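subagent[fold] <- orchestrator: predict structure for attached chain, return tokens only, no commentary.
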Amino acid sequence: MGISKYNSKQLSLRRVVVTGIGLVSPLGIGTEENWSAILEGKNGISAITRFDASDYPSRIAGEIKSFDPLGFMDKKEARKMDLFIQYSIAAAHIAVIDSGIKMEELEGDRTGVYIGSGIGGIGSIEKTHKVLLEKGPSRVSPFFLVSAIINEASGRVSIRFRAKGPNSATATACTTSLHAIGDSFRIIARGDADIMIAGGSESPITPLGLAGFCAMRALSTRNDEPHRASRPFDAKRDGFVVSEGAGIVILEELGSALKRGAKIYAEVVGYGMTGDAYHVSAPSLDGDGASRAMKNALEDAGAYPEEVEYINAHGTSTQYNDKIETLAVKKLFKEHAYKIGVNSTKSMTGHLLGAAGGFEAGITAMSIYNQIIPPTRNYENPDPECDLDYVPNKARPAEINYALSNSFGFGGTNGSLVLKKFNG
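subagent[fold] -> orchestrator:
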């Protein structure tokens, strides 16, 4: 099918595994809490409570209502950072605890941090702009910029764990945290670090953030049924639901993980990224960019398409994305596409934007480790143009050796990861 089984690049690269996962979403604070909710098909979407959204066409979102930053930092520290940075610190803390790595093992230049965000501190920008207009420039906080810029999530986490290795951030819209994980995979593989704390964080539920997405007509307006609003691949889908949270994974060089007896969720074996070069927000209508991202990831992994049993889809619940992602899967996998379990956890969490890829890569790793595919909730009305196996409404035990996790973003930026069951 045009994909080589063996990739000569792999012969000199180090193996990379997932040893820790940290998840923060509208479904809960913590990896096990989110995983249990995902398997049960719980939904985190509700009416917006953070501000008065009565004048907006879409009045629903995936708000995190139970988050207390003081569980992860002191009050003085919390006041100096936007919510998206607080989420990143919380998810990184949860991931490190989950990995079993000791603090002293993280310190030094062999541990790096790569955490991105699609929008960054939009809440801090809005609040500070109001202060500027009402009280003047002298009242703007000296901590404003370092609470709002995207790379401060990565910077704060590196300070927290004294990680002095590669420290970077990416901002590639909805593909942000998948790119961060994929780039971190390559950083370890080529020997520039042994451990990477990688993923993304987002807090876009603000008056301006919501207004922008509403103006694009990208959001669901199923305001009277928020729990049924995000419905990827369903014929009656009418847009995505904006959400917030963070997804962070601990990537580790295999030898390091084995030496300390770490739990290994999955092995990261392939990464592909492409551009559509087509439109500022819509995907290429022929699915070419998405298909090539998956193809590149499989070639990087040295895997055949026929070996893939599960795809954690981007699956946003928009008309174009779901139809074109389905087309891209069929374009690459051909008849095997109908044998793959395809799901979208956005049906339960909403769209975490720049944090989505990190959250979903974590879920993909847990699916491989537990050999079960989470459901796509709210799949009720088949769409002739979306005719794959979307694992509707109920989790399904499955043999998963190879899985793909997809993320596609505004500007035509695409990414795909290949994760594999660890077999020693």
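orchestrator: received. Logging for downstream: The chain has a mean pLDDT of 96. The CA atoms of residues 231 and 378 lie 5 Å apart.
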